[in-house]
Amino acid sequence: MQSKQHHNHEYAIMDLGSNSFHMIIMKKSDNALQVIYKNKQNIHLATGLNSDYFLSQSSIQRGVACLAMFAERLANFPASHVKVIGTYALRVAKNRHQFLTEAAKVFPYPIEIVSGQEEARLIYLGAINNESVPKSEVKFVIDVGGGSTEIAIGKALNPTLVESRPMGCVTYAKQFFPDEKITRQAFEKARFAAEQQVEKIIHFVKNNNIAIAFGASGTIKSIYNILLDIGVSDGIITPKRLDDLVSYILEFNHFDDINYPSLSNERKRVFVSGLAIFYGVFKAFGLKELHYTQSALREGVLYEMIGNNSKHQDIYQKTIDDLSKLYRVDELHAKNVALTAQHLMTQWRQHALVDIDAVLESILDWAAQLHEIGLGINFSGIHKHSAYILQHSNMPGFNEEQQFLLSTLVKYHRKSFKLDHLPYFSLFEKKQIYPLLQILRLSVLINNQRSENLDPSVFKLTIIDHDPCKMVLMMDKTFAKHNRLVLFDLEQEQQYWRENKPWQLDIQVVDIA
């Protein structure tokens, strides 16, 4: 059996798409990356979604069986070298936790489900970093997937537009071509449905002076390959070539009748619906030409994973800073709450046996920075308003659970609460979430008086019998004498904790040297 040491220079990226599951393994050598393994399995996860957005048991079983097979290839890979991204089908599935629970039994790596906008950003990142185009030019990237279509526009690494629309080759095949018959009427319905999905951004896209457009995914790869089949040497998609291709396709009566050397029987099942989506978007945006790129989501994930870890951290912090500015957060107060949280977390770490990794600690820090983001709406419900903003904002860099955890911490940062109301997380355990929430609540209360120069060292935190839920907060006697309201607030907090066993908060007023 190969050791973890053997895989120190290998990285695995998995894309759990609505149509297929992909795994790519790359080896890093002398700062160059080389693909050493690829695997694609057609799972058709989105086919198993019913009208109420529940995945069928058979689709769950197909996906889990694939992950069990992938796990064999990943034996002894260090967790930090494996990244697994779930997209549309898992994003919308109401019973996705059933899938994740079943998957966890056979697949030992966390599955991160990303928002449509984050997926679009990563696709854009993968495309522009693997194509030679000037940084100053405006780039357009589209990916027609199994369940959704992602669109992004930008110049540099951070796109100015990221959009995801619920239209994909699997879902549109099911909706518009249920019997796999090809008719002009069905094609036009699918095409106009796609145009309708993007109509609100047509004006923005057309006004952006796009210099070069890229298309990724199986649908666009198939269009590119068919153009090569029929003698288009460069494979560039233009309005005339696309019109001709659509005309050719509409001459066939059934999916099985389509006959091009490069089009597999598997792809025939979803090609016509994917073509209709792409045709609708291409025409709606008035694109002049589009180039196929092999690089998309997986390459974008890989770039952030390997290219420069500090850049990904920068994306997180830029997102937090942008939200802070947008909602005019009191920066000094937010900074003081964050410093207090860092101080208490450092002390908590010295006594607890629970692992709080760097990502979780960062989420606590960001929750402290943004806990008042909803203040402009209303103070009395600030925790609810702030949580709503964080849950529903576009947050580049964050996967859905990271964003939801951030929102959840902020939602419960003040007033009475019920631990039973905390949502389920697949990436985080309650024993990790509880201390983050406890420390955030304490840090906000300690800074309730909004003192500009509060010194966190007048507080000392420890825990009882290595139980991460039971804390002792010591307050300096001199500080307590001059800050009776802080002490009063903490005593009220004690009562909130008593109502939520196993939480426990002891407060001691002592001499802190």
TrEMBL record:
Transmembrane segments: none
UniProt KW keywords: Hydrolase
Lineage of the organism: Bacteria, Pseudomonadati, Pseudomonadota, Gammaproteobacteria, Orbales
Keyword Hydrolase: yes
GO molecular function: exopolyphosphatase activity
Organism whose genome encodes this protein: Orbus hercynius
One GO process term, biological-process aspect: polyphosphate catabolic process
Name of the protein this chain belongs to: Exopolyphosphatase/guanosine-5'-triphosphate, 3'-diphosphate pyrophosphatase
Keyword field contains Hydrolase: yes
Stretches assigned to the Ppx/GppA phosphatase C-terminal domain: 317-494
